[in-house]
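[Automated response] Your request has been received and processed.

Submitted sequence:
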Amino acid sequence: MYKRIGMLRSFAAVLLAATVCCFTGCKQQPEKASSKQLNAASDNMTLSSDISAENSKLEENSTVSNLSSNDSVSSGKQVQVSSNKTPVTSAASTSKAISSTQGQKPQVKQYYTSTIGMWYTVWWDKEGEPYYDHHWTKETRTTPARFGRYATDDTEKLTWDFNYFKKIGIDYLILDDTNNHQADGGNIASHINACFKTANSLGTSKVPQLCIAGGNPLLNNQMELMESEMSIFKGYATKYKNIFFQWKGKPLYVNFVLPQYFKYTNANFTVRNSCGHTSEAKSAAEAGKYNLKEQGLYGWVFDYEFKGAEAYGVNPGWSRSHNGLSSGAAEKNRENGDLYRRLWLRALKAKPEMIVIASWNDHAEETGIEAVNLSENIAGREAEKKNPYLYEQMTEGYLALKTGYVKGYYYKAESDNNIYQYTGSKLQKVSSVPEGGVLLWIPDDYYDWAGVTRS
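Generated structure:
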């Protein structure tokens, strides 16, 4: 998210140009031609040929939940997944048989019904493009496992991501526009255009919905610039109304600012707030300000819980100590997955209206769950060296918990030291989780809710 609140840049001079180029694309470049042009209606996702043999094998063992029997993820192999996830159907729904002539499925009961959002970083460029070194080289110490160091406006990459997100149960993405819409010489605006255009071309059945996070002009009290950016965001919501995520009756806008700016409202949007660390808003919440107790926060580092709030969030970790972007806050060690497990457990117990994952691919601040290869040893990330897909697999498993278990995954209830592996028909007690295995911590009542035999 490269949140440099102390180093804000103003782009008022180019904002008029931003409005003009917003929906046509600000970068003048030829259409990308690829020998692997993806069919927008395809149910199969083709992974990049850059993926190594070792990572390909790991991905083959990854279970993608929430897919139909005809869906698969391909890395040169077809991974059938329909039998790996066991939905739990309520007795009430089965007792009320729905006629097959209606073309409807029996209702499946859900353990939690939260809407799932996820932050998506948009400023990555491929090698040779203007901002490649500025972000990938200077700010990261990882390389994405599938596509390498990609550009966020790459249609093939966007298509793969959007299809994958839809299949595993991500409802919408929060496009990170928190550094001014025309930052990076218009590169961010151009990439956001590409996100909306690609999602629109694929169609609503193939993609999650999209919304935008912004707010940088507020930090310099640049209200005119802020409203100009909001008019651009309204333009996206109007042009792509079937793609833009709606919340509480209006398009959702996530405001990333300091707590004193949480008072900002806009009549065209449902505004929800976020800040660098949720703990920054603790005193405001205790004072009853800004509806924090009711709404919570939608980002960024979820180190404080607004109990009973509308939104809960999860991060795998966070660090800026390696790239000169440090704000002075202590890094959040990933603890080889334990931090992510704790935050998911907290959210599942609360069963909020909204769960926000921060993030898919902010590899500068190291909040990403996207599979990566580490370029150096990083404390608390040793497990990812064995299994780069760990956080994707954990996320798939936690989303699958809405309706059931994932075959081959391991489960441990909060107050129970016993670990069970789901075999496809029962939970089998094991002494430990093997290297590369996927362990989920779950609420104490989940075993009884699911009703699967343990032995």
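Summary generated for your ticket: The chain is about 25% helix and 15% strand. The mean pLDDT is 83.
If you did not submit this request, please reply to this message.
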